[in-house]
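#lab-general

N.A. 3:47 PM
ok so I finally got the sequence cleaned up, no stray characters, all 148 residues accounted for. can someone with queue access submit it? mine expired

B.Y. 3:52 PM
send it over

N.A. 3:53 PM
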Amino acid sequence: MAGVSINPLAREPITQPLDVGVRAINALLPIGRGQRVGLFAGSGVGKSTLLGMMTRYTDADVIVVGLIGERGREVRDFVETTLGEEGLRRAVVVASPSDRPPLARLHGAYRATAIAEWFRDQGLNVLLLMDSLTRLRPGAARDRLVGR
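B.Y. 4:20 PM
back already:
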C-alpha cells in the first residue's frame, strides 16, 4: 500500500502541461503532468471549492479524491454537489471522515495514493487531490488547541 519509490534519475522529465480546468491556474501557475503541488491556506478561503473546480474541469483521465478528516456532511456535499453524476464517472473518492481514528485517516490517504498509482501504472493521466492534509497527521487537532 505504501508504493514503490521511483529512482529520481529514472523519472520522466515534466514537459507537458496539465489543464486543471481553472484558467487562472493554467495561465499564472501552470502545472505539469507528473508534478506535485501543494495548496495551503487558512480555513474558509476556498481550497475545497478550487479542488472541486479542478475535479470537474481537468483533462486528466481519472481523478482520485482523498477526503481525509472532513466532516461526514462535507463528504456528502462534495460527492453530490461538487462532483455530481458527471464528475463521478471518472472519479474515485476515498473518504476517511473526521470521526475515524487518526490511523484510519492515515490509511485513507495511503489508499488514495495507491489507487492513483495503480491508474498511473495502467498508462492513464491521473489527478490525485487530497483535502485536507492538515487533518491527516495524528495529534494535529491537539497541537492547534495548545498553540503548537
